Amino acid sequence: MAQTRRRLRSSTVVLGGMGVLAAALSACGSDPDRRCVDRNSYTLGDGYEVVSDKNCSGGSRGKSRSRSTDADWYYDSDVRNGYAEHGTFSRSEAVDRGGFGCSGSGGG
C-alpha cells in the first residue's frame, strides 16, 4: 500500500514539474506581447490609443478604412484604460528584451 501512495506522489510531482517547464518555455517564445495602436493618437501621460487588431492585419502598417488611423503593432507595452505606453514599434527590439526565464538575447 505504501508503494502505491509513493508512486502516486511521484507522478503528481512529475506532472506538476512538466507544467512549470511548459509555462517557462512558452514565456520564452519569439512572439512578444503586442497591441494594435493608432500612431497619430499619442498623448502625454496616456500613450497611444489601442485600436482593433484588424487595423494592423497582415503584420505591417496599414491605414484604416473607417477613419484616418495610422495603425501599427506596438510591442511589450503597458496597457491602461485603452491606451498603451512604454513599448516599442520594433518587433526585434521587443524580442531582445526577453521575459520570464529568458536570456536577453531573445527566445526560441
What would you note in describing this structure?
The chain has two helices and six strands. The model is unreliable at 104-108 (pLDDT under 50). The protein has helices spanning 2-27, 91-96; strands spanning 34-43, 47-50, 62-63, 70-75, 78-80, 83-85. The chain has 108 residues and is α+β, with helices and mostly antiparallel strands. The chain is elongated, with a radius of gyration of 20 Å. It has a six-stranded antiparallel β-sheet, with no helix packed on it. The chain starts with a helix and ends in a 12-residue tail after the last helix.
Topology:
Blueprint: H1 2-27, E1 34-43, E2 47-50, E3 62-63, E4 70-75, E5 78-80, E6 83-85, H2 91-96
Antiparallel strand pairs: 1-2, 1-4, 2-6, 3-4, 5-6
Number of helices: 2
Classify the oligomer: single chain
Radius of gyration: 20 Å
How far is the first residue's CA from the last residue's CA?
A: 44 Å
Assign an overall shape: elongated
Task: Please state the structural category.
Answer: alpha+beta
Query: What portion of residues belong to β-strands?
Result: 25-35%
Mean pLDDT over all positions: 74
Uncertain runs with pLDDT below 50, 5 residues or more?
104-108
Enumerate the strands of the largest sheet in spatial order, edge to edge or round the barrel: 3-4-1-2-6-5
Order of helices and strands: HEEEEEEH
Fraction of residues in helix: 25-40%
Reported for the largest beta sheet, the result is: 6 strands, antiparallel
Highlighted features:
elongated, 108 residues, alpha+beta, disordered C terminus, 2 helices, 26% strand
